[in-house]
Amino acid sequence: MKYAITAALAALLLAGSVSAQTPPPAAPAAQPAVIEDFKPSSLNQPGQEYPQVNSQGYARFRITAPDAKAVKVSLGLGGRGGTTLTQGADGVWTGTTEGPMDEGFHYYHLTVDGGIFNDPGAKNFYGSIRWESGIEIPAHDADFYALKDVPHGNVQQIMFPSPSTNTQRRAFVYTPPGYHKDSATRYPVLYLQHGWGEDETAWSNQGHANLIMDNLIAEGKTKPFIIVMTYGMTNEVKMGGLRNFDIKPFQTVMIDELIPYVDSHFRTLSDQPNRAMAGLSMGGFETKLITFANLDKFAYIGLLSGGTISVEDADKTPGFRDKIKLAFVGFGSRELEGGRAGPPGGPPVDPRANAEALKASGFNSVFYVSPNTAHEFQSWRRSLREMAPLLFQN
Amino acid sequence: MKYAITAALAALLLAGSVSAQTPPPAAPAAQPAVIEDFKPSSLNQPGQEYPQVNSQGYARFRITAPDAKAVKVSLGLGGRGGTTLTQGADGVWTGTTEGPMDEGFHYYHLTVDGGIFNDPGAKNFYGSIRWESGIEIPAHDADFYALKDVPHGNVQQIMFPSPSTNTQRRAFVYTPPGYHKDSATRYPVLYLQHGWGEDETAWSNQGHANLIMDNLIAEGKTKPFIIVMTYGMTNEVKMGGLRNFDIKPFQTVMIDELIPYVDSHFRTLSDQPNRAMAGLSMGGFETKLITFANLDKFAYIGLLSGGTISVEDADKTPGFRDKIKLAFVGFGSRELEGGRAGPPGGPPVDPRANAEALKASGFNSVFYVSPNTAHEFQSWRRSLREMAPLLFQN
Q1: Phi, psi for A216 (deg, rounded to 5)
Q2: Does A46 touch chain B (CB under 8 A)?
Q3: Residues B102, B42: contact at Cβ < 8 Å?
Q4: Which residues constitute the signal peptide according to the record (chains A, B) (predicted)?
């Protein structure tokens, strides 16, 4: 079975992917005066002083390359091609973003004499089909994904056999605190997918999904559940591959291989009411296709900057209103500005209006907007924080 | 309690650490003709064609940096400063090592116009207190750490509270295949430490400890056991920090915090006969200090390119001969050439003679030499393969 993908959905998703690469809309011409309280980014490699961030969200870079002709950083403002560093008398290149960045996590890279390299000061995170440098702009609400002295769940790497792809495939499995101690309890499972160009490491490394859960559970705000994260790029790893997206290979891995493996190797509740699927960007796209085609397997759906669910979607899918207990849709506020969530050149898509209409029609539809963030991980961290307490409540 | 560290041991370890940074002895002037069967390294980022390796062990690099003045690779032969790339008409820099490299894993980096960067084609591995590029020279015996269609154990990240350091610390725990299915079985535990400048990711990422165990277990060659890997650099993260090494902070984390956490969160056999400790390089140094001071907690000791155990060591430590069931010492063959295992400028140390004398004195001493490898992960992968079947046999 091959699933048809509507042009609007594909375009919506592609628009999302593109916006991940582009900065938020141009900032006002007059930037606030830079406060000199810069500190090393929390994602720096051990002992590295740069890159730095300040309390306003500016980022400052320092790169040693004494004989280079030009060094640029891909992060910056408003389509002006990032931040150009300047070389000091000591041969070292430095520069500060022209304005504040959005709170949260950002991928970036350097261009040194025309070559693309990572910043040696920063840790790397898998995005854009490569390991890129990452920087964390301190967020006012960073506490919900902070590493605290609370009971911690584990994130474990599993290798499961995949006859359909003739490989041993990797997934990461978050088990909540207490999973190892009480060998009688069984847990619901959320299958949580990354976006285009990312992989199964993203939700733990960039997303802090484990810490978000640990903290929610410690505060009694969510049921403890298992999260399973695997690689969703079963299509050819190429730019533009989404235009020929075929869900079937990944659906086979997910439905026929991964879920049975997890249910036989972990203490899961394996019935439909105890299984959810969610994903960000392309992962939301995959989530919608897979859950709509497998209503007997999933009861909760989450699309994070990755599509929308309309009344029409629900009504043209027999059984949807009975079997699905929640449709959670989240976006970053900047994704909804100026119709950016709509397909370029196509009919406008308004995910909020869709969610509200679905809710008005009597369905448990929840729409969340992350303030002042774009198509980026701060939106998705917050979306997970909002969605988790709503799962497995029926 | 503060442990005195003998100058000879410290020097031995430092010699080891230094040799990790330096290439093997100069190759013969006449190199074999290069066979043009280059393929992408198995450690490349997805879709990346370079770096490449050939069947003889040559490595070939290709770096895009059209406006650069000079690009070098730190890998190469015989102290001649690595491999200098040359720029082609297309602006791309290419070059091949002057001779074959040792089989197995190597760290490396680029120097681009005087700045240190990673190769955008290769995945990164934590070593030298930074994430470095990695390349894999195909080994004739690579099968023992290959990802095969056998039952796989899991590698899970745990975060355990550490009051002594006022942090939540990370460890990785390998649980053998079957651990999740049979909730009655309890397992012995090997605490396995990385080397200087590395971290708790090294034994899984570079070392393939999980795959080595999966394969040994599938062939019935070793008892299944749990492996725990944590960060051993509790001292200040600085070059040369080893000269002022104090084992106490790490020993407190290991003995008072990590072991109790593991024993209460995993199905371990927690008595002394079912606990082992081993480590590579600095990790071997730590292993010797901690196990000798805690004979009531460990029954098996492994030092991998990280020290030696002499008859004198055994005899000056009351209880050692009764309580310790195995002293495993491994080295790469190149570490033993020309007295390199001995401390520079100090009295010679011969770990093989020490091991043989200890064995002749009636103790279960095993000495292993990895053929044609140096102070590098291929030696340690092989040492783990040799050591694992000998553990927990008493």
Answers
A1: -60, -40
A2: yes
A3: no
A4: 1-20
Per-residue 3-state assignment (H helix, E strand, C coil) for A73-96: ECCCCCCCCCEECEECCCCEEEEE
Percent of the residues in chain B that have a pLDDT greater than 70, as a whole number: 85
List B residues 63-102 in contact with A (Cβ-Cβ < 8 A). 63-70, 91
Does A160 contact B180 at a Cβ distance shorter than 8 Å? no
CB atoms near residue B55 (< 10 Å): 11
CATH of span B34-139: 2.60.40.10
B225 touches chain A (CB under 8 A): no
Task: pLDDT band for B19, please (50, 70, 90 cuts).
Answer: very low
| Facing residue for A112 by CB, picked from B117, B183, B238 | B117
CB contact under 8 A, A154 and B149: no
For residue A24, pLDDT over 80 is answered with no
Identify the architecture of domain B7-20+144-390 in CATH. Answer: 3-Layer(aba) Sandwich (3.40)
Spans of all domains in chain A? 7-20+144-390, 36-101+104-137
Is the pLDDT confidence value at B118 over 90? Answer: yes
Render pLDDT for A30-88 as a digit per residue (tens, 0 to 9).
667 999 999 999 999 999 999 999 999 999 999 999 999 999 999 986 445 699 999 99
Per-residue burial over A267-295, b = 16 or more CB atoms within 10 Å of its CB, e = otherwise? bbbbeeebbbbbbbbbbbbbbbbbbbbbb
Domain A36-101+104-137 adopts which CATH fold? Immunoglobulin-like (2.60.40)
Q: Is A118's CB within 8 Å of B116's CB?
A: no
Of all residues in chain B, the one with the smallest CA distance to A211 is: B159
Instruction: Name the residue in chain B with its Cα closest to that of A132.
Output: B120
